[in-house]
Amino acid sequence: MGIVMSGIHVSRKRQNGFTFIEILVSIVILAVGLLSIAGLVTTVIKGNVSSKKTTTAIALAQTKIEELKNKPFTDPELEDTNASNNFNLSSTISIDHSEEGIDENGEAGGYYNRIWNVANNIPSSGIKTVEVIITWQDNGAHSISFTTAIAE
Q1: By 3-state DSSP, what share of the chain in percent is helix, strand and coil, each rounded to 5?
Q2: Domain segments of the chain: what residues?
Q3: d(Cα 65, Cα 145) in Å, to the nearest integer?
Q4: How far apart are CA 106 and CA 65, in angstroms?
Q5: Given its phi and psi angles, is residue 98 left (phi above 0), alpha (psi -120 to 50 degrees) or beta?
Q6: Which end of the chain is flanked by fewer CB atoms within 10 Å, N or C?
Q7: What average pLDDT does range 33-57 have in this prediction?
Q8: How far apart are CA 106 and CA 116, in angstroms?
Q9: Backbone φ, ψ for residue 70 (5° rounding)
């Protein structure tokens, strides 16, 4: 295809490919997309770590409950050593028993704290109500608790 100007024939060649501006715009769009995905991946990883810690805390509480249920009714670990917390067994300040700085296996050297509070004869005579509380620090304070009743 050509253009005739005042008797001079100028020919335009059709160029194939992309312009520099088109390439820059494409790179910017790609970079924004990749950065968004990187942020999402970081959030997912943090969520997985948090879920693992919560799952570990749940397992620690369940293990202690099973231990306590298998002990004799008069075992020292089932003593109500602090009657002032009997109507607030979820208290982490006024406590009956605790294990501090335990790991995922319940052994020393971790960052979980396991507390269990016991109330005698609640809700009725011959029954002990036990609440097991697990606390830990991970970008703030976290805790989970489980309650069970143990009959004589």
Answers
A1: 35, 30, 35
A2: 20-151
A3: 11
A4: 13
A5: beta
A6: N
A7: 92
A8: 14
A9: -90, 0
